[in-house]
Amino acid sequence: MSEDLHKHARRLLAAARVEGISDAEQAWLETHMQECAQCGEHACSLARTIGGVRSLAAPLDPALVEATRRRVHFRARELREQEARTRALWLSCALSWVLGVLSAPLLWRLVAWFGELLSLSAPVCLTVFVFTWLTPAVVVAALLAWWRTQPVRAHSYGTERNHALATTRGESEN
């Protein structure tokens, strides 16, 4: 048989273990291994090697396993909290947008009424309308930006995290 066929069979054997191969390639590989003793032996050798590597037991420190488990659970909880905060932020943005759209005609009438009362020009009324309509969103955005720059304060989850880190390092609680 051609050396290229053997190389192709070995490549498919490796690919079948890692990423999987198509049904047509699997059928060709099985047929080839039945006809070629060398490739069949290579497949058996590969299976024995993988089985041997999987059967190796690596000794793990139980404290390390527990610390890793705690950190994974802590991170999962952080991600759930972050997802809840993000969902709340999206809902508040949607509510803000809806209220902004609904309040725009009322605000425009109010500004137009003041414009007539004070004899203001149309460009001035438009400027007042835009400024008044956008001010709440700008103030909230500025407050959120300021809030994000503030240092993290000791929350209950921060204390728990510090405790978990101290425990994994073997430090005692004071």
Q: Care to describe what's here?
A:
With 174 residues, this protein is mainly alpha-helical. The protein has two domains: 3-55, no CATH class; 62-169. The protein has six helices and no strands. It has helices spanning 3-18, 23-35, 37-55, 62-118, 122-149, 156-169. Helix 1 (3-18) packs across helix 2 and helix 4 packs antiparallel against helix 6. The longest helix is centred in the middle third of the chain and has 57 residues, at 62-118. The chain starts with a helix and ends in a 5-residue tail after the last helix. The relative contact order is 0.06. Mean pLDDT is 82; it is low at 154-162.
Topology:
Layout: H1 3-18, H2 23-35, H3 37-55, H4 62-118, H5 122-149, H6 156-169
Helix pairs in contact: 1-2, 1-3, 2-3, 4-5, 4-6
Shape: elongated
- Termini separation (Å)? 74 Å
The helix content, as a percent range, equals: over 70%
Number of beta strands: 0
Count structural domains: 2
In terms of DSSP E residues, the strand content is: under 5%
- The overall pLDDT average reads 82
Counting DSSP H or I runs of 4 or more residues, the number of helices is: 6
Category by helix and strand content = mainly alpha
Largest β-sheet summary: none
- Which stretches of 5+ consecutive residues score pLDDT under 50? 154-162
- SSE order: HHHHHH
Rg computed from alpha carbons, rounded to a whole number of angstroms:
33 Å
Features:
single chain; 174 residues; 6 helices
Please provide a brief summary of the model.
The chain is mainly α. The chain is built from 6 helices and no strands.
